[in-house]
Design brief:
By secondary structure, this protein is of the alpha+beta class. Helices cover 46% and strands 11% of the residues. It folds into two domains: 221 residues, no CATH class; 100 residues, Homeodomain-like (Arc Repressor Mutant, subunit A). The strands form two sheets. It has a five-stranded mixed β-sheet with strand order 3-4-7-5-6. Strands 1-2 form a two-stranded antiparallel ribbon. A hairpin with a 2-residue loop joins β3 and β4.
Length: 352
Amino acid sequence: MFSRPLPAPQAAAGLGTGPAVTPIAFVNAIVRAYDQRGRSPAEALALAQIAPAALSDPAARITAAQMERISGAAMQELDDEGLGWFSRRLPWGSYGMLARASISAPALELALRRWCRHHGLLTDDITLTLSVVDDTATLCITEQRDLGALREFCLVSVLCNIHGLACWLVDSRIPLQGAQFPFAPPPHHDVYGVLFSGPTAFGTAPAGLRFDARYLALPLRRDEHALQQMLQRALPLTVLQYRRDRLLVQRVRQALQTQPAQTHSAEALAALLHVSPRTLHRQLKDEGASLQALKDEVRKSRALELLLRTSRPIKQVAEATGFQNEKSFIRAFKGWTGTSPAEFRRAGAPLA
């Protein structure tokens, strides 16, 4: 697997340090995989410094480093990167093979479609599909057989895996619009807020993730050399290490266009996009843009359209384009066009 089954806010330097958020239920799922093979998990548990007594405590949690250690040990001892989820093993290196088949794609969409298609060559117990409707991309899992006691662990891990891979391929955080799962909320449902950004719905089939479809057009930023390095320690791959969102300019532009009343200030806009104002300005600068320039671009386009295609009073046009008052709108409009809104409307000038 490329992403450990449960990423935590930060990887710990030592196994016992860092936030312990991974539920013991996922460790018990790995123990079941050992049971299926008639093997003992004792060595892997000791390696990860997980006390056997913790397995019987539903409230117990472990750190990300401990989860990484026991997952890696189990995958190699059982020679199964699927950790018992499927009706046949996924030998060590299976997901590396899928990555090599995807990394030559020019953009993320083709890479993910290849991944979904080739995953079916490894197992037919689940089917992965990527669909796009309007501006939303959805990655979903169709269950072809009863996954039994390992169902939650399987569905969560596979979705974390493909999301982490997608972020790694384009070297960008890909914020999720939502996630859904076909089972009832588990006792540890609070941890899904760590796993998946956006709201999580339970009792909704099929299992899946939704995100802005524009990410699919991003070019891949990884090559074979980067893949070789990643495969040397693939388990800790998470989406949380990607602070940069390579679609921030587009997200800012969309927010300004669709929610002008909620984007008057950098603080309000940053809150809407779930970033800090400082991060907002820094990332826009990294992408060769500025908030003021994007505001001017969006507001000018909207103002020109309203002035030419409607008879709304100037005051209403100012409000609709996100200005606090008519006076500031007129001043900005003159700076954009060299004329006042009223003069522009009377002249019936073509859209710029």
